[in-house]
């Protein structure tokens, strides 16, 4: 029985997917040559490919650029007060709203920046916050 189970597990996890895996590996190596990624430990490679799963939210706040706002404006102070009271899940949802992903790219943790912009509309009470994911701009009405 043990031999049967061992052979079956080997077939399911190794032999049956060998062709698909080889196709995947060929494609992966075309985009990411082996010389480049073999310098990484598996955990490091996972961060490079998937992004950081944990975020230093205070570092993120520190790296924000403000347009038509100052860090000392009451709207900005209120935003960060509310933001830091959010759950981790809600903060990641905001990051997804802002950038299209709930993770920060692996190579950018310290250098990840986004811009908070005042859309400067005549009646800001009628506007909702919006984001431009391509340029990492968060439009926050006053």
UniProtKB/TrEMBL annotation:
Residues passing through the membrane, by range: none
Q: E.C. number, please?
A: 2.3.2.26
Question: Per the UniProt entry, what is one GO biological process?
Answer: protein polyubiquitination
- MF terms in GO: ligase activity; ubiquitin protein ligase activity
Q: What's the catalysed reaction?
A: S-ubiquitinyl-[E2 ubiquitin-conjugating enzyme]-L-cysteine + [acceptor protein]-L-lysine = [E2 ubiquitin-conjugating enzyme]-L-cysteine + N(6)-ubiquitinyl-[acceptor protein]-L-lysine
Any single Pfam family the record assigns to this protein? HECT
* Active-site residue list: 134 (glycyl thioester intermediate)
Question: What keywords is this UniProt entry annotated with?
Answer: Ligase, Transferase, Ubl conjugation pathway
Q: Which residues does the UniProt record annotate as the domain HECT?
A: 1-142
Signal peptide region: none
Protein name from the UniProt record: HECT-type E3 ubiquitin transferase
Biological source species: Sclerurus mexicanus (tawny-throated leaftosser)
The protein's gene is named Herc3_0
